[in-house]
Write a structure and sequence with these properties.
5 helices, six-stranded antiparallel sheet, globular, alpha+beta
């Protein structure tokens, strides 16, 4: 039986093409009903198939909490939500937020890809339309917090008199 065409099919194809432009990206179909995006055989975006309402799951280490505020999002099942994965399921007639999902694909790729490929991406080696990664402020020694175990040990030594 042929799948019914949905308005979200064009968005799904656009998202898949966007993800495949990343260095080392390829498709992976671990089970029926999915044609996922992976890098080095490690999935970075679970995508539904054309003819089904758009569904996407990505690993969002930075934006997970904000994404989960959206009404169409929830933590990904099978325990993946505990590791920062978020799933979005659009209703059949809803217009998917393609730019938001592209940002998720970018964030998830960077979280799952080997550092070498992320460096290649940052140097301009693929996914030209990918938004630039926000600079991360380096922690200096004075802003770094000591671990609780280390703090207790230091306190113990400084209070000893002998």
């Amino acid at each position: 039986m042929a799948r019914k065409r949905l308005p979200s099919d064009a968005a799904l194809k656009e998202l898949r093409a966007f993800g495949l432009a990343y260095p080392g990206a390829h498709t992976k179909s671990p089970w029926p009903g999915h044609l996922d995006l992976a890098v080095n055989d490690k999935t970075f975006a679970y995508l539904s198939l054309e003819g089904e309402p758009l569904g996407i799951s990505c690993k969002l280490p930075r934006s997970r909490d904000i994404a989960l505020m959206l009404p169409f999002c929830k933590p990904t099942g099978y325990g993946l939500g505990k590791s920062g994965w978020v799933s979005a399921q659009m209703a059949a007639g809803d217009e998917p937020p393609v730019d938001l999902f592209k940002a998720w694909i970018d964030e998830s790729y960077r979280a799952q890809a080997p550092k070498k490929l992320v460096k290649e991406l940052d140097a301009g080696g693929g996914a030209a339309a990918a938004p630039e990664k926000a600079p991360v402020k380096a922690r200096t020694r004075s802003t770094r917090r000591a671990s609780p175990a280390r703090s207790r040990a230091s306190r113990g030594r400084s209070t000893r008199r002998g």
